[in-house]
Amino acid sequence: MLYRRFGRTELEMPVFSCGGMRYQYKWQDVPQSEIPRNNQENLEATIRRSLEVGINHIETARGYGTSEVQLGKILPKFPRTKLIVQTKVNPEADAKEFERNLEKSLQNLRLDYIDLLGLHGINNRETLDECIRPGGCLDVARKLQAQGKVKFIGFSTHGSTDIIIEAINTNQFDYVNLHWYYINQNNWAAIEAATRHDMGVFIISPSDKGGRLYEPSQKLVNLCAPLSPMVFNDLFCLSHPEVHTLSLGASKPQDFDEHLKTLELLDNASEILPLILASLEEEAIASLGEDWVKTWNVNLPSYEETPGNVNIPVILWLRNLAIAYDMTEYAKMRYNLLGNAGDWFPGNKADQVDKLNLQQCLIRSPHADKIPHLLTQAHQMLGGETVKRLSQK
């Protein structure tokens, strides 16, 4: 395993982390007696495999249902100083409710302290304010930090880059969990801001939200050869030293195997990546046209600025992926979350575009005339049954 300094925490962080949202029994809290033995055994085998390969960062959240309780049966069996344990707790308008949830996390994990506490889901200014205002969630976290129950405090986010940078620039956090990978590099400015503040940088779900790379299209497989799409994406992310760790979201012990192939390639990333990057870009241009590929996202309005809260940037991005790389199943899954995922994936689908006047909000786009038609096309291509976030199932 390779390790990187996790910003000002000074923790030696493995470049892969064992994310804890896919091996638990349920997304809701249930009594421990209801957790099937085979599920618990699989989780424990996954943790043991993680530690065997040097991945000692175990990451979970209060919102991941039975994950914390199930980890609480295995983590205390290992030397505490050998583990880096992170959990995340959603901000609340009532800081006392946040404190109760945080204490519940500690109780579930059966640990005297957690190394990394994340304020889970600073996705807009409202949740940021709930954290940083006097008497808010951050003050509660600081109190538990002073008691030795929490070592370092960070935040996770699915918010816009502007919101993430605003949170980073408060200089109140030691690390950030955010999205950034090959198919979505929008948050690079936030990573640069985190680097300036010497914060740890943890990449959320690069293999799932980064393209369902465990089930890649054949076209993507061909374009990423000789690497698998998963290893290519890992290598792309970790070739940037500003990135410290990638969450693997393992569901079983074997899920680490493909990722581990990345480690021996890192020293030669500058030789390996350019050919694959060129191949991907050439295919995008061949499929979508050079002008579109280079300018499609110029001066697009945010969903808040768009009639009907249609999320134009996300919809066009998903259309691009479906057409250029045959990533249709991924695009459908993400598209059908729109309108149903709150501030975790905000904005609406394009099903009502023909009833909306988008002329004013698109006035600065070089593609204003054709975007309404492309949105309609995207809905026809990707529309389907409403998709729920995992935690809503």
UniProtKB/TrEMBL annotation:
InterPro entries: AKR (IPR020471), AKR2_Oxidoreductase (IPR053135), NAD(P)_OxRdtase_dom_sf (IPR036812), NADP_OxRdtase_dom (IPR023210). One of its GO terms (molecular function) is oxidoreductase activity. It comes from the Bacteria. Residues 19-174 form the NADP-dependent oxidoreductase domain. SUPFAM superfamilies: NAD(P)-linked oxidoreductase (SSF51430). This is Aldo/keto reductase. It comes from Hassallia byssoidea VB512170. The lineage of its organism: Bacteria, Bacillati, Cyanobacteriota, Cyanophyceae, Nostocales.
